[in-house]
Amino acid sequence: MKGMIDTTSLDDFYQKNTVALPEGIDKEIGHFNVFETETLFNKETGTRIMPYSRRAYYKISWIKGKNTAEYADKVIDIRENALLFATPKIPYHWLPDGTDQAGMFCIFTADFLSSGKTGIQLDELPIFKPGQLPIFQLSQTEVTEIEYIFRKMQRELVSDYKYKFDLLRNLILELIHYGQKLQPISALGTAHNASERISSLFIELLERQFPMESPHQRLVLRTAKDYADQLAVHVNHLNKVLKEVTGSTTTEIISNRIIQEAKILLKQTYWSISEIAYALGYDDPGHFSKYFKKQTSFAPLAFRS
Length: 305
What we know:
Elements: E1 4-7, H1 10-16, E2 32-36, E3 41-42, E4 47-50, E5 58-64, E6 67-70, E7 75-78, E8 81-86, E9 93-96, E10 102-108, H2 110-114, E11 135-137, H3 140-157, H4 164-180, H5 194-207, H6 224-231, H7 235-246, H8 250-268, H9 273-279, H10 285-296, H11 300-304
Parallel strand pairs: 1-4
Antiparallel strand pairs: 2-10, 3-4, 5-8, 5-10, 6-7, 6-9, 8-11
Organism: Pedobacter metabolipauper
InterPro entries: Homeodomain-like_sf, HTH_AraC
Protein name: AraC family transcriptional regulator
């Protein structure tokens, strides 16, 4: 049986479940927490609660159970114990196989890790780069070592140690370096539904860029090549797949979503045209206005009014 995911916001998760917001975490830059997988998995319904937004959080998981991970061009089968690293910039589908799911995982923002003395830029680490296979099979000895790190995270998180967040950052780094020394699990190859999977992951990655919540936020991925690089596929293959599945080119889909967001910002915010243009990746507000008019027949100010 393939499990389903019950997605909820982090704030809602803390309010509706027995898991407490870590003491002092609201005073920190960024966010961190550690969870037991069993406590978030409903064995009767086969559903699991997702206590965070994949758009914002990095995740390191010790997985105990049968699962399948589907990336754009790879399918990875997990039969027992594994260590998985996930970045919000690379989407994947996670399919639990059965209800016997255990293990632990931690979530954290880039700000949490970079705000301490480590000064680490996560996306520069090999384990979080596109095209990698960030899933590692664990021996029983390795399971013991990994579980010890996660248990230590749990203990430190509720301690009154003054520098506990610095220690937690070091434990995150210990897991990262542990994983980078392991041999990745071999992929099963491309499944028969690869086109649908690539299309689905592309749309998920596109939607992770939105909504634009601040004039200081900026669209990161704007071109077909940007998305192909994150999905670790060739841009021509991505274009071919999307044309087959959706009837539209990659550029057309991206453009339509940007225009949709522009309309929302024009109607629902008081941002200036320059602020909207900047957020959507345009350095020149005039260029944005011309493009918006070409796509909608309205100038931005006319559409707003």
